[in-house]
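S.,

As promised, the glycine run. Input:
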Amino acid sequence: MRVLVVGSGGREHALCWALSASSLLTKLWCAPGNPGTAALAENLPIGASDIAALVAFAREHHVDLVLPGPEAPLVAGLADALAAAGIRCCGPTAAAARLEGSKSFAKEIADAAGIPTARWEHFTDPAEAVEFVRRRGAPIVVKADGLAAGKGVVVAETEAEAEAAIAAFMAERTLGEAGASLVIEECLFGEEVSLFALCDGTEAVFLGAAQDHKRVGEGDTGPNTGGMGAYSPPPAFTPALADAAMARVIRPALAEMAARGTPFRGILFAGLMLTDDGPKLIEFNVRFGDPECQALLLRLRSDLLAALLAACDGELADFDLRWSDRASIAVVLAARGYPATPARGGVIAGLERAAAVAGVQVFHAGTDRRGDRLVANGGRVLTVAATGDDLAAARAAAYAAIGEIDWPDGFCRRDIGWRALQGTSE
Ligand code: AMP
Ligand code: GLY
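Predicted complex:
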């Protein structure tokens, strides 16, 4: 199998790492990749959103499977263009990727399929949105309808905060057209988990769950980021809750998408709130999370490539994945100043010593080679992932490895996994 991974983050490095273990793999490319994927795959100078160039390359080089990491190329129609060229893509068509690309569409699907979710309304008029907030009161959640790279959600503690978000998204268009319409919804309370399912259009297989730390600061404080760390499995998400979420969230969404003639193929990521009334859907994403993916793949015992092919070929019924009983953790090392203004160019050393710690894998994201040196060239720069007999052991291994890394500009949160380790919840 000749496989092309699309993207350049820690998630894509982990995907290349897992695919490299497959006996089915004969050739691996990554577009555009990073210095970490370069050790496992041939990196291509093609951007992740350059659909025409990706399809042309896949056609010319007889690629058997394309695996897109990020959502943007899927929302823009990469899977459709590949299908037209007769090339398998483990990711949804543009019509099915609207589950992530449009929050109001995702909520519509949730309602039509009877999926438990926060009560919501859709607004195209700022005055009506403000009126609604005044009627409902705070706390309340304001969401830009379109793709906003994690910047489109404001959990407003006060009505003034909600009104400021409406003004920013709709009047000032701080997020461009993504904020032209809004979803405003009820605030849910509980512990948050990310559930991943591999889908073939009709069937879904549980790909594991993780808990992400989205805020930049310890104790889950400060600005939102792409994710500062994750661990798997989250103890609060018992196997019974996972079964319930597969039955009440994932499978109804698949059935609804299929009934509309836009079946969902690929990785469906449900952000869930574990409320007192059971798991409720916060949002769908149409891809793996980053850094959740790095934590999950360390626990996967089955052949990832075989599973992805089964999803593409509609053969997931009766497909079973084996997982390690060990716990895993992924800690992100970011550049000083992230998420606002990450410092670039700092030299990174010690990765070999870090990777030599038992159970540890170091994944690259925003790194770059300058001569024989490795330098930082992004916000989230590395993910240090580790497994252990339990979460405490995994965490100790990850932080021991981080201690071996010499990068003065880098920082990480020291408390990844704290909710599980202290048995506390918000
Ligand atoms: P998103 O960018 O859609 O992943 O949302 C960012 C974060 O906002 C989520 O991870 C939640 O922590 C929070 N959030 C979104 N919707 C709600 C809601 N209805 N109630 C409480 N928190 C929410
Ligand atoms: N870590 C959250 C995400 O990938 O969306």
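The longest strand covers residues 204-217. The CA atoms of residues 270 and 284 lie 5 Å apart.

- D.
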